[in-house]
Each structure stands twice: as C-alpha cells, then as structure tokens.
C-alpha cells in the first residue's frame, strides 16, 4: 500500500518547539485523513533543527466508492415534485432513475447515485497546504517579499521547501500536487548545512532516512540523544570522570544539531574554588554544555572535574580542535565572570547589602523587600519557640535571607537565590543554622520538594510564607481558577507540610493575626477566608496522601479548628475508628438520631437541646443510654483536652451497645409529649457527644 | 599584497574587520551609512533601522554604530564588558530568501573557516520594550560564542512590518577578539600594525571606559538628567505636533518625524543613564520605559505619513506616487 513522505524544510526551529511540532504534524495529518475516511497502518513524525518530517505508511491509493439510493416521488407525481427530485439527485431526466414498485405505495422513482472514491493523493493535496497554513506554532512569523501583503504564510522561521511524495513501494511515487506561495514543493531536500549542503533527491521514506544519514543528518531526535549520551559517557569514562546527566539539557542540545559530535574541553583548575552549583549553572545556561564529576575531595564531598562536554554540529577538518579551543575560551570568560562575582560578592557582608533592599519593590501594595524582611524577621522570632528554634538565630537568618538578591551572582543566575546566600553566610562566619536557613527558607517549593527539618529553617520558612499569604490576602490578590501568579497555593501547602513535618503546634488564626499586624492590618476582614483556603489546601494534600476528604470536613466543621497538626491527628484517629465495627455502628446510630431530630425539630419548630431530665427516663434502655452518654461525653471531652484522640474514640465506642439497644426497644415518638421531648433530648445528647471528636453529619460514604 | 592590505586583514586589525564587513555588504547593494550622531543603546535605534523598517519601501543599509550601555561599564577592569562598544548593523527590507547564506558568507569573508568552526543558530526572540518592537530570530554562535544577532522584524513602533526586514547585528569587539585570538578586549589590535606603530583597543578606549564608568555610576547629574528627560519628551511631542500638515493644506504628509524621533532617542539614552545611577525604582522603571515607547510609537506613526515612510509609495517601487 502507498506511503506518504512529507518534509517541511525551514530555517532553524527553536529546540524547545521541535518535539511538540513533530507530534502536532503527525496528529493533524492523520486526523484529517481519518476524518475523510482514509485509514492508515502507521505514522511517525520527526524533527531536526531544520526540518519536520512525517511518514504515513499503508494508505489506500484511493478512497472507497460510495453508492447511495435516493427515493423520489411516485410515478405520475406533479411536474414540480419530479423536477425537484431530478435536481437534488443530479439527474438529467427521469430516464436515469429506476422505477421501484411497492405493494402499499405503488410505483415510485429511485435515483442511484454512485460516487467513486477520491484519489488519496488529491485528498493529500487538499489537507497538507491547509495544515501548513494554520500550523499551531507557539510563536510564528512572516518573512520576505510576500510579507508585504496581509495574510501571508506564517511559520516558526522562514519555510523554504516541502517534499510531499505519495506512492506504493513498487512504483515511482508521485508528487502531491499543491502549491504554497514562496515555498518550493518537490522531491528535493538538503543535508547538513555545512557538511552536505547540496540538494538531495528523495522519493520515499525508505530512501529518505539513509539519504539523510549519508548527508550528515540524524532524523530521529531520540537517536541523536542516544548518540550524545553514549558518546558523552564514553568520553567521561575514558578520562576517569563521571557525566553529570541532565535530561533537560540533553533534550535541548539534541534540538540544536543535526549531526551530533561530542567533544570534551577543559578549564583551569583554579575555577574549582567556585561553588559547583555556580560552575554548573554557568556552563549549562550560557554554553549548553555538560559538567563532569571527578574523584571526591579530601573531605569526601563530591567534586566537579575541571572539564566539560560540548556537543557540536560539525565533523571539523581538524578533528574539532578549533571548536574545543573556542568553547574553552568562552567557558573561561564565563567562569572568570563567575569567579569575579564570587570574589566581589564576598567582600561585602550580607547585612551591609540590606539598605539596597529598600529600593527594591516587592509588590506595589506590599512595600519594599526591606520592609518584607523586617516583617519576616519579627514573625520568625515569634515562631521560633513554637518549632524549637533559637529566636535570635531565627531572626538573624530572616534578616539575611533576601540579602543575596542584590549580589552580582544572583543577579546573573537568579536560580541560585538562597544557595548563594548560604555560601556567603557560611563564608562570613554565620552560625551554620543561619546559613542553612537562608537557603532553606524558600522550601518546600512544591509537593515533592524536601521539607527542611532544622528548626531555624522551619521558623524562617514559615514566617516567609505566612507573611506572603497574609499580605496578598490583605490586598485581595487571591488565586483564582488556574491563575496563581504569586504561587500562593504553593505557599499554603508549604506551611502545611512544614507544620506537619516539624509537628509544630500553632494556632493559624493567631499567626495570621500576627502576620497581619506586621502589614499594619487587622486580620478580621480576611482571616476566615484565609483559614478556609488552608483547609482546602489541607484537604487536597491529605487526599493525595489517601485520606478521606469528608473526614477532614467533619473535623473542620467543629469550631476553632486552626491547629493543623491537631486537625490531622484527629482525622487520622477518626479514620481508624470508623474502620472498626463499633465506629461503623455508632456512625449509623448517630445518623439515625440526627435524622429523627431533624424531622421532629422541623415539625415542632423548636430545638431539643436541653439536657435530658433523669426523672422522665422510664425504660431501662433510656436510663442506660443516658448514663453511657454522660460517661462517654465526659471521658471523650477529657481525652480531647489532652489531645488523646484515640482515647476519645474509645470513649465513644462504649456508646455503641446502649445506642443499639435504645433504638431497638424505645419508641422515640411516644404519645406522652413529655416523654417524647425527653427522648429527643437524649438523641440530641448523642449528637453532642459525637461532636466532641467530629461533626458526624459531614461524614459521607457507605450506609448514608 | 601591500603591507597596508595585510594590516587591514580582518584577522589582524579591528578596523580591518569593519572595512571587510562594509565591503561585503556594499557588494550586496547596501548603502553604507555612518554612525548616527546621537547616543544610542544599540544600532537598532539608528533611524536607518527603526524608521526605515516601517512602510513598504525596499531598503538596504549597513553601518557601524557605537552603542552606549551605561550600566555595563566596569571601569575598564573587565576584559569582556564595556559601556561603549561597536555594533555592525545590517538591515535588508524585505529580507532576501538567502539571508542566512549571506550571513554565513560574511563570516567567511572575515576569515571564519566554516569547516573548522561550529556555527549555530540558537533561538533568541528579540524584543525592545522601549521601541515597541519585536522579531523572531537567533543568536548566532561560533564555537559556543554569541557573535551576532539575527532577527526578522515583525513589529516596530507598534506597527506590523510589511514587508518584514531582516536585521543582522555583529558584536564587533567579540568577533574581533575571536578572529584575532585575543582574550582581553583591550588587547585587540586596532590598526594592524606591529611594534611602535601598533595601536590597541585599550590605547583608544581604556581611559574612556574608566572615565565614563565613573561618570555613569557616580557623577552624572541626575537632576539635570531628569530635566533632560522631561525636556526631550516634551520636545518630541512638540515637534510631532508642529510637523502635522496644516488644516488648509492638501498635503497629508507629516513634516518633522525625524527631528521628533531624535528626541525619542535622547529620552531613551537619558533614561539609561538614570537607570545606571540607580535612581529609578523598579516600579518607576516600567513607567519610564512606557513613556519612551509612547514617543517611539508616535514617531513611527508620523514617519508612516512621510515619503520615505511610504505614504505616497504604498505601491510597488518604481510606480509614480499617487497624488
């Protein structure tokens, strides 16, 4: 069966767009074919810096014939009806219709319309230019003389030529007949820009791939990646070094070359005094080169080697010597810059940089970075005892935490913020906990990022996030839908993870109030809303951990639940309790009680929230339940007060038997109104007792 | 080859590099212009690029432009960074289909052997917030070093480019350091002579770098600069207004787009100086950039109503302008 070979040859496509573009091309072409009823056996798309290519295998030469019968008017129908029929069926006269007779309807006309299937190549000639003209590039451009007119072709960079060939393996494939202004359509492509610039004739995929390889083009990005990775590892191994692998960088460099040639360069050993993260950032961001690990240093710590791997696009006539020398020069210049930053930055103590933060606006409505630092320091000092940190160290760390933002190094490599502060703090002899906190106060940066455990780090990290959250809530800049420009969801999740991991006991409401006063605001207006936001984030977090979100609701429904650690402990205890038989039965009983109460309270228009009158307890099951409720409530209350949630659940579990017996033997809606009222009060006492641990009415699940 | 010819090899002298590029682009039909006589941050600001990129008329030009980046000054102590440096700028409107090939030929012309050196086109989308301009293109790398920028202008002064111009910017010092094999910009051979007659880049510019760094970071009179910014802004608006066709005139042309644009350039440079002095806060910064952009847009709009801007020549070149 015939194949399609399509190649779109252009100027250099940005590396980050290539993979997606190849996939889009495959999907757009095959979807358009399938939509028109053309099925295929397989399709694969490719991208290099200069081309997108698509191979669709096993297409039919032409589409299926369509035969359709269309019923017309009866024989002898008025002229108008006959003419309408002829016109709609595309017939010249009634001679072309056949007559069918039906025992009920008599004789009538039928038109047989036969449409032969379209040639696949014609369909392709329709599909391809349409896709080219509306290709979904993230950014596209116009070019050349054609761009004088509005609506001229757009592509990611100038598109020069297209190969579009269709045909079976055994015959010479044909050119798909279409034209796009300013673009050559034919069987001609080109090889590597420098190594094989001459035109290449290609007709089918089976020839295309090897022809490109001969012309120094590896079509498949994954193969280019493989080649680079293996060559890089081999080069490193041969020198007794270890490649620092980097998938993002590998993907990018594979999109910068058609013919990868991996080479190794070196830099002066003296640069190894620069922190390894800086060396890596420099070489990676600016040069798109890989760094290498050498033998561990005398202190056993991992060390970079004074070498790097570069990926060139050229088999150079001198074996790459000039390319390596050129790259080494650039790396040397970049590392000299970095060394210069590292030297000069260390000449100024972090605290001496603080005045500069006064001129940096954090947010128009939230003041400067200096003001922010002052707020965070006050909060961190106050939070320190809660997480077991030294208040003075926490305040010190917070004060210095943002100072590296105005260092040369972070100015050049923003991704090193925090880390550089840590280095500089250690260099100027700060307490190790302070240095660590400067780096770690940004953490955790997401659901999988490490949570700091050093108490000083925890204090500053909490203070930083609470200040941010409260600040943005105060100016009403909350996340909406998918928009969360200040990463406030991440900040709230960070607070939750920090509190839980450090088992810190704190009242969020009190902390929100404290943070708000730092902003010179009263938290009253937004504290509830921010607490609800925390509750939502906690629900998402616990759900991801496998907890039932209805249990979280059941706990949050109780008043004053703003201690995250206690909420989680209670949810855990509740979950375990509800897994037991006692728990399930008590839940069923309390639901039944709640239902009865709801109905009766509505009917009577009053609440039955008075304590049951002992004098009105007539049946032994009533007395027993009343007794059990008194004991269980007291016991559960005591247990909750000492944060013994398991104990509270145990106390409640003693209610199961009396509750079951009560429902078994006692008629709640007694004829005697006083008895009825007292029994309802008893049910209310049951509801109240369970509320010692959670709002059972919020619990969903089985048996509802 | 005479001794002078040898001195002027692009691999031997900074001026030889410039002369070679000028000859190369002159051979492609470019007018070889001289630097614009105002302080600018980049060759793009030259009206031969900014204004000529607008409108339908074909245009080919090449020129050297001294570029001033007050913030990049390093008191002459950094071997790679300068507050004053040279760009070689080429603009071809519309861009010819083989612009990449022409660029590579220009590299060959200055002595880069493309079988030895790894040339790469690495994505770099260009945007000038102050000019209201953007385009798509690349950084051109030679053995890992960025030696040029290559841009297809899509918009300038807020207007779509129709047709699109191709712009090439060569970083002359970097390129010269590369072809001369020099590590420090101040060691570049400027005139190609050796011994007593040799003049280096440092001989010409080191003292200037020191003096201007001092000026830019420490001494530039900020009160005067703030005043100059306001004055330039007001003058730009005033000239634009004064250049409008009179109510009683049948001539729809704007008559003072270029003098107005000079004031836009001036405002932009004054802003850069204020920025280097550190007296513009982050929030203010944005509003200053916007103010310059508004000027650039207004100048571009006026330019489009001039002859060179294509008012009368909206038809293809050669046809008589409509009345």
TrEMBL record, chain A:
Xref: Pfam families: DALR_1 (PF05746), tRNA_synt_2f (PF02092)
Top-rank EC class of the record's enzyme: ligase
Keywords, alphabetical: Aminoacyl-tRNA synthetase, ATP-binding, Cytoplasm, Ligase, Nucleotide-binding, Protein biosynthesis
Keyword ATP-binding tagged: yes
Residues in DALR anticodon binding domain copies: 591-688
Entry annotated with the keyword Ligase: yes
EC number assigned by the record: 6.1.1.14
Subcellular location: Cytoplasm
Subcellular location, principal: cytoplasm
Catalytic activity: tRNA(Gly) + glycine + ATP = glycyl-tRNA(Gly) + AMP + diphosphate
Subunit text: Tetramer of two alpha and two beta subunits.
Similarity remark: Belongs to the class-II aminoacyl-tRNA synthetase family.
Protein name: Glycine--tRNA ligase beta subunit
Annotated organism of origin: Methylobacterium indicum
UniProtKB/TrEMBL annotation, chain B:
Compartment list: Cytoplasm
Catalytic activity from the UniProt record: tRNA(Gly) + glycine + ATP = glycyl-tRNA(Gly) + AMP + diphosphate
Name of the top EC class for this enzyme: ligase
Transmembrane domains' residue ranges: none
Domain of life: Bacteria
InterPro entries: aa-tRNA-synth_II/BPL/LPL, Gly-tRNA-synth_heterodimer, Gly-tRNA_ligase_asu
EC identifiers of the protein: 6.1.1.14
Keyword Aminoacyl-tRNA synthetase: yes
Entry coiled-coil feature ranges: none
Signal sequence, start to end: none
Pfam families the UniProt entry points to: tRNA-synt_2e (PF02091)
Keyword Protein transport among UniProt keywords: no
Keywords recorded for this protein, A-Z: Aminoacyl-tRNA synthetase, ATP-binding, Cytoplasm, Ligase, Nucleotide-binding, Protein biosynthesis
Family, per entry: Belongs to the class-II aminoacyl-tRNA synthetase family.
Subunit record text: Tetramer of two alpha and two beta subunits.
Protein name per Swiss-Prot or TrEMBL: Glycine--tRNA ligase alpha subunit
Gene from which the chain derives: glyQ
